[in-house]
Amino acid sequence: MFSQQFITKLNRAQTVTVLTGAGISAESGVPTFRGTDGLWKKFRPEELANFDAFIKNPDLVWEWYKYRKQIISEIKPNAGHFALAKMEKIHKSFSIVTQNIDNLHRRAGSKTVYELHGNIEQNYCIVCYNKFSNEEIIRSEKAPRCSCGGLIRPDVVWFGEMLPESQWSASVMASESAEIFFSIGTSAVVYPAASLPMIAKRTGAYVVEINLERTELSHQADEVLIGKSGEILPKLIDVCYH
Ligand code: BV8
Ligand code: ZN
User: Where are the domains of the chain?
Assistant: First the structure.
């Protein structure tokens, strides 16, 4: 399944960087954005995950996030997350750059995790920036409001919003210094996250894609592994690290 070249490179690699998307959490039961089990078929993520939609129809956007918060509160990391946490202990420098907001990498034990698109377990008031935990607001039927009257939003990056500067710059550095760069469970269509594999490749990384199907990135990857990340990653550990 894995080329000898890849096994040799991975064994020798000091610096490994991993970009993950919704696909790595699919086997934990988190619906992906664009797959057949896509979130809320009638809407595209771009239509709901944006500030204007939230201001125009806060109750609809809240209903979508409340539904996802409930799913995420009931799920656990899967074998793919745990395999990455194990790999972190083997390489000198190992960074995970995730587009996911489900906090599953940290819950699986990964230490260096950059969250490009925020974290659904955190919320804040759009007027006074007061922070709120999910427990404080999850029972609200309508879009929850702060005592100051402001709407409370999830602490995630919506379309058209900047990524958190510190997370983005650390992710670019981790991509530029990677000897091996994995792109796992992402359709590689959302920017600027989707530009990281090419940043890594341009600075000499061996790019490995793990996905159920080929994506926009596949033709530029050095190795394309088709299958479930929850199955491929544990196999990689068995074959690669002895
Ligand atoms: C910004 C948080 C600019 C919220 C998300 C036109 C052209 C190019 C770009 C743009 C454009 N118009 C607008 C843009 C920019 C826009 C963008 O890229 N749009 C795309 C849709 C064209 N980007 C932005 O707006 C970003 N901000 O650019 O700011 C700026 C500049 C200056 C000043 C001000 C602003 C912000 C983007 C962040 C949006 N927020 N999420 C929330 O989650 O609610 S994005 C959302 O999509 C998720 O974060 C998700 O991670 C991301 C990407 O989706 P994937 O993770 O890839 O998931 P997907 O379902 O697509 O794919 C799953 C994959 O897994 C599939 O390939 C499937 O085959 C695979 N899979 C499934 N199961 C498995 C599996 N693989 C392995 N194993 C399995 N078991
Ligand atoms: Zn407030």
Answer: 4-30+77-117+162-240, 38-74+123-156
